[in-house]
Design goal:
It contains 13 helices and no strands. With 278 residues, it is mainly α. Helix 2 packs antiparallel against helix 3, helix 4 packs across helix 5 and helix 9 packs across helix 10.
C-alpha cells in the first residue's frame, strides 16, 4: 500500500518545464496585454480588475491540476483522482479564463478575416457541444485512456484538448465577444447547460456500474485501501455528482436571472399599456 501522507503531498509535485514555461508565458502575455507590465502599470481601458482576478484564478486552477500531487496520484494510483483533475481542467478553469478575458484583447484576433469564420463555426452552440463531449468520451475509451498513462506525449495532448474544447464549450455561456460571437440568451443558456450535462452524467453513471476497465489502475499499488472496483465507482460518481452539481448551480442562477428578466419585461409592457390608455 502506498503512503500518501503529508510528506507525499509536500514532495510529489510535477515540476514539468513545459507546464512552468507555458504558464509563465500565458500569464506574462496576459499581464502585458492588460497593462500591468507596462508603465504606468494600470489596467487599459475596457479591462476590469475582476476580470484579471478571474483569469488568475483560472490559470491557478489549471496549474494546480497539472503540477500538484493530484496529477501524480491520478496518473499512477487512482482513477478517481484523475477524474478530479479532469473536472478542474474542464469545468472550473476554462470558464474562469473566459470570464477573465476582456473583449478588447480578442477583437484584433477574432476579427481577422481568416480567423472569424473558423471561430464562428467552432463556437456555434451545436458544434461546441459536440466537440467537447466527443473529445471527453473519446479520451475515456479504455485503449486511449490507458495509452495516456504510458505515453507522456499522448497525455499532454489529452490535457490540451480538454482545455481547448472546454473553452469552446463554455463560449456560448461566457463569450467575451458580445457582438461578434455573442452569448446565448438566458433561456438558451439554461437549455444549453441542461442538455450539456447529460453526456458526462451518462459516462459517469456507466463507469460507476461497470467492472474495472483501466488496466493500469487494476495493477497499481493500492492507496488508502481502495480496490480497483471501488476506485472506478468513485471516479464515475465524481464525474456524475460533482460535475452535475456545477451544472445545476449554474442553471439555477441562470433560470432565476431569466425569470427576473421576464418579470421586468412584463412590468415594462404593463407600464407601456397604462401610458397608452391614459
Amino acid at each position: 500500500m502506498v503512503d500518501v501522507g503529508l510528506n507525499f503531498w509536500l514532495t510529489q509535485w510535477n515540476w514539468e518545464p513545459s507546464i512552468i514555461i507555458g504558464t509563465a508565458v500565458v500569464l506574462g502575455l496576459y499581464l502585458y496585454a492588460v497593462g500591468l507590465l507596462r508603465k504606468p502599470y494600470t489596467l487599459i481601458e475596457g479591462v476590469k480588475q475582476s476580470q484579471v482576478i478571474s483569469f488568475w484564478l483560472g490559470i491557478l486552477v489549471i496549474f494546480l491540476a497539472l503540477v500538484s500531487p493530484i496529477d501524480e496520484i491520478g496518473d499512477r494510483y487512482l482513477f478517481s483522482m484523475h477524474m478530479v483533475q479532469h473536472l478542474l481542467l474542464t469545468m472550473i478553469g476554462p470558464p474562469l479564463l473566459l470570464l477573465g478575458t476582456p473583449e478588447v484583447l480578442l477583437k484584433p484576433i477574432i476579427r481577422n478575416r481568416l480567423v472569424f469564420p473558423v471561430a464562428r463555426v467552432l463556437t456555434h452552440p451545436l458544434m461546441a457541444f459536440f466537440l467537447f463531449n466527443a473529445d471527453f468520451w473519446l479520451w475515456h475509451a479504455p485503449p486511449l485512456y490507458n495509452a495516456t498513462l504510458t505515453n507522456q506525449n499522448i497525455h499532454i495532448l489529452e490535457h490540451v484538448t480538454f482545455i481547448v474544447f472546454a473553452v469552446i464549450y463554455w463560449w456560448p455561456m461566457f463569450s467575451p465577444m458580445t457582438r461578434d460571437l455573442p452569448r446565448l440568451s438566458l433561456g438558451g443558456q439554461v437549455l444549453y447547460l441542461f442538455l450539456g450535462g447529460m453526456p458526462i452524467v451518462a459516462l459517469g453513471a456507466g463507469l460507476t456500474f461497470a467492472a474495472p476497465l483501466y488496466a493500469p489502475y487494476i495493477h497499481a499499488p493500492r492507496v488508502w485501501g481502495i480496490s480497483p472496483a471501488t476506485d472506478q465507482q468513485l471516479g464515475g460518481l465524481i464525474m456524475w455528482v460533482p460535475g452535475n452539481i456545477i451544472y445545476i448551480v449554474v442553471v439555477s442562477i441562470l433560470f432565476i436571472r431569466w425569470m427576473q428578466q421576464q418579470e421586468a419585461k412584463q412590468r415594462a409592457e404593463e407600464a407601456r399599456q397604462d401610458v397608452v390608455e391614459c
